[in-house]
């Protein structure tokens, strides 16, 4: 996105600010659906958790996307955004049977990832078909915190427990209509998906009435110029062929599903923050901004990389900086980054700020969460107001 546009937006809406480019989200959606165009039934379910502003959900609904949700609140947001219940899949982890039943009452596709709840749900609601989240025991993903399909992970039902699933199905008469996996995020190697798909096909074969296979997500997106990313077109070619062969073998046109978050929204997002202070120490030059890990936690949480550019002085002499936040703990966005010379008051732009950035923001240190702006057809729309002091106090009851 054009630097001047971003700078003008900080003048109009102040900083810190999240900006999203609707055009990029739409083009990413078209890229992934295009890559699987050889499969008759394909459904891309946007992972709401990555960026859950209702306008983003509406935008994806307009593209005919489905929605991947993990909480009843995300389901309700999705329904409000215009998704029909059958467009929504609910993949919770560790939630109560009660919440799962409440979501099922809304008509949403349930995806269960443990045997205990499967059995309880099947006994009480044998007529509601459910999808099973399988743990294929594959180590995948860019960081141990986002690698969720390995043997020690809390997610999914182990492939070694498929006989248990079958026993539950027989005993309860419930119907399994989908098989799902999600092994992690930032997976570069398409072989990981291919290996896991073979495992899912093997599991699917063991159930008579499957309608869909959901391959989860985890596509790696580029974080800087020249960075490598998952080759979606190649994955589309290889997986489509295998999927179509499997459908023939199974004797039914199943639906192929994915549930990307990052792939759809990561690159569409920009986080803009103002430099409050430039601090030269004996070893480092820090640029301290009017934000912190309360607004963008990914670097501190799992060492993620966000390219940082000084859009106020793009042609300035490059120098080395550590970009830090104002939180009362170590709060580093990037160390020893080569950035064009920074002065106090400059606006820094953080790239890849669409996925897991605002949606993980908090009020830590009693700070306001930033505003969000959507650029749609060359116009900017404020899609979330900056919080105010009233928001900090909302729901607090004074008893002293
Ligand atoms: C079950 C599930 N599906 C989909 C996603 C989206 O993954 P990504 O943002 O890497 O596309 C996640 C991410 O945590 C997930 O846990």
Automatic annotation (TrEMBL):
Substrate binds at residues 298, 302, 329, 356. It catalyses: meso-2,6-diaminopimelate + H(+) = L-lysine + CO2. Its cofactor is pyridoxal 5'-phosphate. InterPro entries: Ala_racemase/Decarboxylase_C, DAP_deCOOHase_LysA, De-COase2_C, De-COase2_N, Orn/DAP/Arg_de-COase, PLP-binding_barrel. Gene3D superfamilies: Alanine racemase (3.20.20.10), Lyase, Ornithine Decarboxylase, Chain A, domain 1 (2.40.37.10). Pathway: Amino-acid biosynthesis; L-lysine biosynthesis via DAP pathway; L-lysine from DL-2,6-diaminopimelate: step 1/1. Its EC number is 4.1.1.20. Belongs to the Orn/Lys/Arg decarboxylase class-II family. LysA subfamily. NCBIfam families: lysA. PANTHER family: DIAMINOPIMELATE DECARBOXYLASE, GROUP IV DECARBOXYLASE. This is Diaminopimelate decarboxylase. It comes from Tenacibaculum todarodis. The gene is lysA.
């Amino acid at each position: 996105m054009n630097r001047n546009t971003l700078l003008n937006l900080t003048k109009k809406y102040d900083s810190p600010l999240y900006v999203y480019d609707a055009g990029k989200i739409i083009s990413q959606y078209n890229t992934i659906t295009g890559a699987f165009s050889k499969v008759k039934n394909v459904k891309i379910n946007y992972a709401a958790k990555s960026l859950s502003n209702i306008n983003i959900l509406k935008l994806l609904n307009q593209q005919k996307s489905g929605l991947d949700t993990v909480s009843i609140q995300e389901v309700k947001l999705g329904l409000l955004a215009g998704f029909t219940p059958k467009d929504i899949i609910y993949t919770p982890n560790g939630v109560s049977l009660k919440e799962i039943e409440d979501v099922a009452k809304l008509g949403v596709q349930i995806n269960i990832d443990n045997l205990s709840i499967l059995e309880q749900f099947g006994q009480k609601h044998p007529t509601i078909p459910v999808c099973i989240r399988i743990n294929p025991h594959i180590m995948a993903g860019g960081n141990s915190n986002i690698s969720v399909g390995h043997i020690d992970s809390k997610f999914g039902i182990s492939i070694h427990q498929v006989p248990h699933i079958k026993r539950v199905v027989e005993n309860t008469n419930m119907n399994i209509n989908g098989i799902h996996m999600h092994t992690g995020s930032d997976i570069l190697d398409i072989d990981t998906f291919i290996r896991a798909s073979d495992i899912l096909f093997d599991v699917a074969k063991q159930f008579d009435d499957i309608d869909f296979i959901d391959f989860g997500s985890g596509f790696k997106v580029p974080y800087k110029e020249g960075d490598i990313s998952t080759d979606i077109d190649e994955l589309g070619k290889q997986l489509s062929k295998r999927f179509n062969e499997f459908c023939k073998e199974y004797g039914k046109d199943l639906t192929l599903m994915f549930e990307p978050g990052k792939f759809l929204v990561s690159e569409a997002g920009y986080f803009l923050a103002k430099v409050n202070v430039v601090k030269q120490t004996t070893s480092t030059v820090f640029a301290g901004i009017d934000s912190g890990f309360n607004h963008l936690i990914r670097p501190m949480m799992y060492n993620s990389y966000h390219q940082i550019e000084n859009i106020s002085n793009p042609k300035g002499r490059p120098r080395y900086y550590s970009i830090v936040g104002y939180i009362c703990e170590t709060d580093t966005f990037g160390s020893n980054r080569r950035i064009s010379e920074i002065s106090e008051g400059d606006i820094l732009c953080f790239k890849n700020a669409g996925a897991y950035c605002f949606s993980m923001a908090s009020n830590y240190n009693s700070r306001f969460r930033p505003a969000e702006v959507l650029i749609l057809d060359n116009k900017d729309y404020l899609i979330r107001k900056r919080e105010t002091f009233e928001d900090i106090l909302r729901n607090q009851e004074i008893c002293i």
